[in-house]
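Box 3.1 A note on notation
Throughout this textbook, protein chains are presented in two layers. The first layer is the amino acid sequence; the second is a token string describing backbone geometry. Keep the layers aligned when reading.
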Amino acid sequence: MAASAAATRRLEGATIPSASATMKRRLDRIGIQLYTVRAEMRADMPGTIAKIAGFGYKDVEFAGYFGRTAKQVREMLDANGLKSPSTHIGFDAMKVDWDKTFDDALTIGQQFITVPSPPNGTANTVAAWQKVADDFNAAGEKAKARGLTLGYHNHYTEFAATEGTTAFDILLTRTDPKYISFEMDVCWATRGGADPVALMRKYPGRFVMLHIKDITKGPEWKQTDLGEGSIDFKGILREDASVMQHVFVEHDQPADPMAFAKKSFDYLSTLEY
């Protein structure tokens, strides 16, 4: 990643200063996965979106629209100076109506349609995961034709041993990079026994988005505030800065979701790596 210190590389979602290994960077664009504040979104979506913007976030990743149309969602984002580069939609839900899935994403201004977990009923066998990869390729080609990219977000079960390999390795080796990108959840990858940096080195250029959440070491594996667990965020952010487009804060069960959202933004916005 060596480059002229004076140069600046502008990516889709973030400005990453190109620099020597001794220079420090900071994220200038930080997102949040709104699943973190899902109860607040359900109770008051406009108010929650406004508060998230007030904390300093520039990007949001949806996990449902709580009965709003794509046009209403876009208006809400525009009113608060936010963008939504990605959304989480189950693969089975996408298949119900591909055109609506794509039309909604384009109306909202999204680039990535991200599958948040394995399709329903996926068995943990090589054959089953190969079929998932093939299905993703076919869907990714459809998305590409509309100017969108299909993504995949991991949990930790994809790292379990599966007939001498893992589901995650099958997905990464069998999917076509022209059509499929990956959003690494660094917490779940760690929980599954993987090293996020090692994964980036093994599959360079495939992880264009990150879920940033922290977790204590086993055997408890408890999600916690950023910086209070076991995840080396600095090392992860340094590793693939040249291809990383978006980062999203997340916590599945925060005690106080809005307080967590604010504290996480404050932590990441000052983190040097």
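The domain at 27-270 is CATH 3.20.20.150 (TIM Barrel). The chain is about 40% helix and 20% strand.
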